[in-house]
Amino acid sequence: MAAAAEYSCRDSRAIQGGESALPGSLLFSAGLLGNLLALFLLGQQRLRRGRPPRASAFYLLVSGLAVTDLLGKCLLSPMVLVAYARNRSLSELWPGGGEPGRLCQLFAFLMAFFGLAPTLLLLAMALECWLSLGHPYFYQRHLRRCRRAAALLAPAAAAALGALFCALPLLGFGATVQYCPGTWCFIRMAGGSAPARGYSVLYASLLGALGLAIGLCNLASMRSLYRMARRSHRRSVPTAGRAPAGPRMEELDHLVLLALMTVLFTVCSLPLIIRAYVGAFATNLDEKADLTALRFLSVNSIVDPWVFIIFRTSVFRKFLHRVCRRLNSKKAATPQLL
């Protein structure tokens, strides 16, 4: 019974099923172009501010996220394209080093790392937004001077923590496996030994806990922003029809962008989290569900920069500001009608 529960492409030496390299090439191109455009827009925004060209901590973290996604695409996608070009599986391109081969183990490590590191950066962005809105006095007094240094250190800290955690399967805790059609390697999400199942559940639990923490920080930031808006209207009812002040509108921009990225992360990581928990206790394998979860996880780094690019367009920002003005005018008119 246990012997039958094995992945069909675990030991395959060639690409199975006659798969084409075109989808992978298109996704790689979209991810590469999107992250480069996002970094270009961030650089342009910094130059527009003129003197002094100091970027905020939030946008330093956004830049770190874009660089992380870009690095992930540049490291992972070429391996897949070479496998398709030579019609060899990842384990066959660089065998040795035990099962399932050195390249497959490296691919699994990078896949897990670039799934976890951006999540840690999202958490840093959510914490920065929550502290600046919910605890402004503490933020200004204790964190203002070192926030840029902390924002620069956050990607390095995320990389170190992510690399340490994702290297555990290479040290014997957890297992990696090659998925069909032979161009995917990742943590084993079903079957296997108890340490393999335990690491899969641990990885999924960490993703879920980080997502929950990000969501709670976002909700707390929204609550603080709403309280700030109410206090502002109470103090200045005659001028309540005006748009919010510059700093508050900038914080709202940060919060909306962070909320969009959080929703995207949740949609892309939830299939993997569910699959890891189901696979840990399932008696049979569902390779199609595993592959779907991996594809969702890989899409996150492709769509992330495009969300930022769309958010930075003048049409979207004008729409957002117009909605805020209408909400403010309605709140200001309510006391007068009563």
Structure characterization notes:
It is a single chain. By secondary structure, this protein is an all-alpha fold. 74% of the residues lie in helices and 2% in strands. The chain has helices at residues 22-48, 57-86, 90-93, 102-134, 136-143, 147-166, 194-235, 246-281, 287-312, 314-337; strands at 176-179, 184-187. It has a two-stranded antiparallel ribbon. It is elongated.
Between the first and last Cα atoms, what is the distance in angstroms? 74 Å
DSSP helix fraction: over 70%
Uncertain stretches of 5 or more adjacent residues: 237-247
Largest sheet, strands/sense/barrel: 2 strands, antiparallel
**Strand ordering within the main sheet:** 1-2
| Tally of contiguous helical segments | 10
Look at the structure and give the mean pLDDT.
76
Gyration radius from CA atoms, angstroms:
23 Å
Sheet-strand content, in percent, reads: under 5%
Q: Please, what is the oligomeric state?
A: single chain
What coarse outline follows from CA principal-axis ratios?
Answer: elongated
One letter per element, helices H and strands E, the order comes to HHHHHHEEHHHH
Helix/strand structural class? mainly alpha
Topology, number of strands: 2
Q: How are the SSEs ordered, and which strands pair?
A:
Layout lengths: L21 H27 L8 H30 L3 H4 L8 H33 L1 H8 L3 H20 L9 E4 L4 E4 L6 H42 L10 H36 L5 H26 L1 H24 L1
Antiparallel strand pairs: 1-2
